[in-house]
UniProtKB/TrEMBL annotation:
Cross-referenced Gene3D superfamilies: Winged helix-like DNA-binding domain superfamily/Winged helix DNA-binding domain
Organism: Deinococcus aluminii
Pfam families, sorted: GntR
Swiss-Prot/TrEMBL keywords: DNA-binding, Transcription, Transcription regulation
This protein's name: HTH gntR-type domain-containing protein
Entry-linked CDD domains: WHTH_GntR
Length: 342
């Protein structure tokens, strides 16, 4: 058992000029002593009557403080023996945890004294000071079909979002494994045709949104540069992509009338590619390069997220999530400071 700490009554004095309630001052001193190791587990605290007499306060005030500390699990009363400090709860700060914060507070107090502030003026200044919490980072997972392309999408989208946004790139085949290993995302972004599939797999949370795509800048330039007389073979990885592939080529290479569309696993692919002047292949069909003669122009039809659509339809959702996290953090912080100032 540790004896009653003499420093409790020697170093601690009630400040009656401040608006902080006396009971809260006493409670804060005990909590500080426990957190910093001044009052280690097993320390016997002064009796209610003795502490009230030493501090010149009502025994009712000290009794209320001890009761609050007991409710928080910091101290316990043992009939016939006294009031003792408990072992630190797991969630309670360990001694020395706030050493850096204490240094900053000491610096603040020293600066306040330098400019002529007393304790009450400093406390009022702090209470009236508006504060801005650090920007709340939003975890976003982009789910695509092909890893390399998906990583390219994410690198581009990172340029459109706040630096605090944490992006993860994965595929439909791998996202279950990634989801189990990484922190849950706040938002999932994916291709339009994957939304329903993903919703069935993850349920209602986290929210899922899609993003529209346009041919990448390099793809648009390559299409525009095609010779109008060229025989072009356009190779699609998926049957449902042929329509999209056709629309993009017709839009950015309207001057090229001779375009044949074919799936990457079609039997006649090698024959058509051998006779072509140019081959455009969708992401995932890169093996067609092995069939293409060296004289033939060949390039990938690579997509990029539409920045205008992203800014108008996806970014607002991301900002709303960020604002909610910021508000939650603010309310949590306000709740903590409220306990101190009440």
């Amino acid at each position: 058992m540790v004896a009653v700490p003499p420093l409790f009554s020697r170093d601690f004095r009630i400040n009656r000029s401040t608006s902080i309630p006396i009971g809260l001052q006493i409670k804060g001193r005990v909590e500080y002593g426990i957190a910093c190791g001044d009052f280690p587990p097993g320390t016997r605290l002064p009796t209610v009557r003795d502490l009230a007499q030493e501090l010149g306060v009502s025994p009712v005030t000290v009794s209320q403080v001890y009761r609050q500390l007991q409710e928080e699990g910091l101290i316990s009363s043992q009939p016939g023996r006294g009031t003792f400090v408990n072992e630190l709860p797991a969630a309670y700060p360990a001694p020395g945890q706030f050493a850096h914060l204490d240094q900053l507070i000491d610096q603040l107090i020293a600066e306040a004294i330098h400019v002529g502030f007393d304790q009450q003026q400093l406390l009022k200044r702090i209470a009236a000071r508006p504060y801005t919490l650090p920007s709340a980072g939003v975890r976003v997972m982009f789910i695509g079909r092909f890893q390399e392309a998906t990583e390219d999408y994410v690198r581009f989208l990172q340029t459109l979002t706040p630096p605090s946004t944490q992006w993860t790139a994965t595929t439909l085949q791998e996202f279950g494994t990634v989801l189990a290993q990484a922190p849950a995302p706040d938002l999932i972004v994916t291709l339009p045709n994957l939304v329903l599939d993903l919703r069935q797999q993850v349920g209602e949370a986290p929210p899922i949104t899609d993003v529209l795509f346009i041919p990448s800048e390099a793809t648009r330039i390559a299409l525009a540069a095609l010779d109008p007389r060229a025989q072009v073979v356009a190779v699609s990885t998926l049957p449902e992509f042929i329509t999209t592939l056709r629309a993009g080529i017709e839009r950015f290479a309207p001057h090229v009338p001779d375009v044949t569309y074919i799936l990457h696993d079609a039997p006649q692919l090698a024959e058509l590619v051998a006779a072509a002047d140019a081959v455009v292949y969708a992401t995932g069909s890169g093996k067609v390069r092995d069939l293409t003669p060296s004289r033939t122009k060949v390039f990938e039809y690579r997509y990029a997220p539409d920045p205008l659509y992203f800014e108008q339809h996806v970014l607002p959702s991301l900002r709303a999530i960020q604002a909610k996290k910021q508000q939650d953090a603010r309310e949590e912080f306000t709740g903590l400071t409220g306990e101190i100032t009440e």
